[in-house]
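subagent[fold] <- orchestrator: predict structure for attached chain, return tokens only, no commentary.
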Amino acid sequence: MRLPTLIKYCWWKTATERWNRLYYCSRDDVVFIPEEEGRGCVAVEQVQSFLYGD
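subagent[fold] -> orchestrator:
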């Protein structure tokens, strides 16, 4: 793999692992990862930024 491809793969893999731990609160329409207490929750529209750590 070329280096840029490898970096993109690592970002994608990390985001996918975080996606699998993601919880949705329908009452507040937010998502969160329970193990990441310091990060809080974000609006559904911000899921991509939340997963990729933007």
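orchestrator: received. Logging for downstream: The helical segments are 3-20, 47-52. Residues 3-20 form the longest helix (18 residues).
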